[in-house]
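Try this one yourself first.
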């Protein structure tokens, strides 16, 4: 196993052996250099240090994305959404939809999540088996996040393809076709949201109390807080971020439980373990594997010198298996405590939807294994060859 890896020239077996590569890189150096002058960080403490210092480590992607995306719709999207911006713009935008994720707002979603999970499990029972990704773990988060934003039920199928094309363009290397399709997806998504906004302006009764789209429209009308482009790109980002990651959390979770049937029995015997079980699923297979930051001044990470302007890739899947933080890190242990994994990031950009994702996982795993403790894998899962998002594309189970 080579000691480091170059994100721009990954070996063919990287995805199935990612954790072996992380282990070798973690042992070799605090910062493994890439062929484009960027660095890969794999140690837990170093990654925490970077997250905690947004004044030194910028999230702004203008410099990094210009050569990759030029003046394209993908550039516009990925440099306008709040996740890739710094204070004060980041702070201003984040405040605008913070209230959609309060405890009270989430409590109102709980019964809807329960009803959706029950519906999918009824289908699983009727069919005697299921392809989990398409029929369960994609559907649940997409329904919930579209409810929150205000996307009508009939249009939800559009969101998945757009999300895959837009987020897929964030992979370390992309083809010209992926670039073109990503740009078209951004334009189609914007046109779709503009129609939704026009509908609400023509007919205020189409606005639903508490929906994020209407709230952001109010902020746009108050021009000082949000421009139209900012509004569109926050909605696109929320709709994408709100389901793709959660889908993978649910698919990986079902898979890890089925690979470890002893942990299903443990959960059934001690249902109070559900909270730590959700954290362990998140730690064990981080749905987002890479976050990035750019050094605004010369920096030192774990003893390695990082020049001003260099990008660092924070490998969350590697940090989550760092033995200095997690004893016996390759063991899937649903009672693990403490479990301060980094799957939601940390610091000012910490995932705004983390409580929602946790709630979805809790209800999904609890209900699934309560009802079907003998669920088994019908075939090995299929993993996508993506690096930034650790994605299961197919997971067949049977009763
Ligand atoms: C298991 C599911 C999820 C995972 C693993 C995840 C992971 C992450 C991570 C790692 C970040 C930090 C990015 C950075 O610092 O560069 C982030 C940011 C964010 N996530 Fe999530 N996320 C999940 C679900 C959700 C959901 C359900 C929503 C909303 C409905 C959401 C909305 C956001 C937003 C708005 C940000 C940007 C926060 C900011 O920049 O201030 N996420 N997420």
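Now uncover the answer:
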């Amino acid at each position: 196993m080579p000691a480091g890896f170059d994100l721009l020239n990954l070996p063919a077996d990287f995805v199935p052996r990612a954790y072996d590569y992380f282990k070798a890189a973690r042992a070799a150096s605090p910062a493994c250099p890439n062929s484009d002058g960027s660095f890969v960080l794999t140690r837990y403490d170093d990654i925490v240090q970077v997250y905690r210092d947004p004044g030194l480590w910028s999230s702004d992607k203008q410099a990094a994305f210009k050569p990759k995306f030029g003046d394209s719709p993908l550039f516009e999207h990925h440099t306008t959404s709040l996740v890739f911006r710094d204070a004060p713009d980041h702070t201003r935008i984040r405040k605008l939809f913070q209230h959609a994720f309060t405890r009270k707002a989430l409590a109102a979603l709980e019964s809807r999540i329960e009803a959706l999970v029950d519906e999918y499990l009824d289908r699983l029972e009727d069919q005697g088996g299921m392809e989990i990704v398409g029929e369960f773990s994609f559907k649940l988060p997409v329904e919930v996040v579209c409810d929150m934003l205000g996307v009508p039920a009939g249009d939800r199928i559009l969101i998945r393809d757009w999300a895959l094309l837009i987020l897929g363009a964030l992979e370390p290397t992309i083809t010209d076709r992926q670039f073109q399709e990503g740009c078209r997806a951004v334009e189609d998504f914007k046109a779709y949201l503009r129609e939704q906004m026009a509908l609400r302006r023509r007919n205020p009764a189409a606005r639903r109390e508490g929906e994020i789209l209407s709230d952001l429209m109010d902020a746009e009308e108050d021009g000082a807080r949000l421009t139209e482009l900012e509004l569109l790109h926050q909605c696109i980002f929320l709709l994408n971020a709100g389901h793709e990651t959660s889908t993978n959390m649910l698919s990986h979770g079902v898979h890890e439980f089925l690979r470890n049937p002893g942990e299903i029995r443990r959960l059934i015997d001690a249902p109070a373990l559900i909270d730590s079980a959700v954290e362990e699923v998140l730690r064990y297979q981080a749905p987002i594997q890479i976050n990035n930051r750019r050094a605004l001044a010369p920096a030192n990470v774990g003893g390695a010198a990082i020049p001003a302007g260099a990008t660092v890739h924070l490998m969350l899947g590697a940090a989550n298996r760092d033995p200095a933080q997690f004893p016996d890190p390759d063991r899937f242990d649903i009672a693990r405590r403490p479990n301060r994994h980094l799957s939601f990031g940390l610091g000012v950009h910490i995932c705004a939807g983390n409580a929602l994702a946790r709630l979805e996982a809790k209800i999904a795993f609890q209900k699934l294994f309560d009802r079907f403790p003998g669920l088994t894998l019908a075939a090995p899962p299929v993993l996508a060859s993506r690096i930034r998002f650790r994605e299961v594309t197919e997971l067949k189970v049977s009763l």
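Discussion: The first strand starts at residue 31 and ends at 33. The pocket of protoporphyrin IX containing FE is lined by residues 59, 82-83, 94, 145, 238, 241-242, 245-246, 249, 287-288, 291, 343-345, 349, 351-353, 356-357 (CB under 6 Å).
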